[in-house]
UniProtKB/TrEMBL annotation:
It comes from the Bacteria. The lineage of its organism: Bacteria, Pseudomonadati, Bacteroidota, Flavobacteriia, Flavobacteriales. Residues 1-20 form the signal peptide. Residues 37-113 form the DUF4468 domain. Pfam families: DUF4468. This is DUF4468 domain-containing protein. Keywords: Signal. It comes from Autumnicola edwardsiae. PROSITE patterns: PROKAR_LIPOPROTEIN.
Length: 151
């Protein structure tokens, strides 16, 4: 009986709070790097950088073509509560694409559009305003620059 009352009270509590869906359309960012490294060496460095940077198991290298000099990955930015997922957690990703040639690399990070619920009931960890996404994208760009510069 206590469990039923607790369940009823929690449903009543959550149904009274205001859920405001926030639509987010982050901008893509890219940066070009002039390096003194062969295409083959850059290819290995970029793969290693992605392995090191993609700490979450949901972040993966999707496509890799050494001849074309393209490596593409899916990077988990975070999780949000979303109305589109019945108010459950939804993963938010960015596509990370690196194009490489001899002495040159171009990194492009394109976060996907998403929606999150803004409510007093939702933890700040599960809200993902565009400023937070921009910080993560900039961190990835800086991480790449530091990685290829030291190797």
């Amino acid at each position: 009986m206590k469990k039923c009352l607790l369940l009823f009270a929690s449903v009543l509590f959550f149904s009274c709070s205001a859920y405001v869906p926030v639509n987010v359309s982050p901008q893509s960012s890219s940066k070009e790097y002039e390096l003194e490294t062969s295409k083959d060496d850059l290819y290995v460095q970029v793969n290693n950088w992605m392995i090191d940077s993609f700490e979450n198991a949901k972040s993966v290298i999707d496509f890799s073509d050494k001849e074309a000099g393209i490596i593409t990955g899916k990077y988990l930015i975070g999780e949000v509560y979303s109305a589109s997922n019945n108010y459950g957690l939804t993963d938010v990703y960015a596509t990370v694409r690196v194009q490489i040639k001899d002495d040159y690399a171009k990194l492009t990070v394109t976060p996907e559009n998403y929606q999150y619920i803004d409510s007093g009931d939702v933890s700040e960890d599960h809200k993902l305003p565009v400023e937070k996404v921009n910080r993560q994208v900039n961190t990835l760009l800086e991480s790449f620059e530091q990685y290829v510069a030291k190797n």
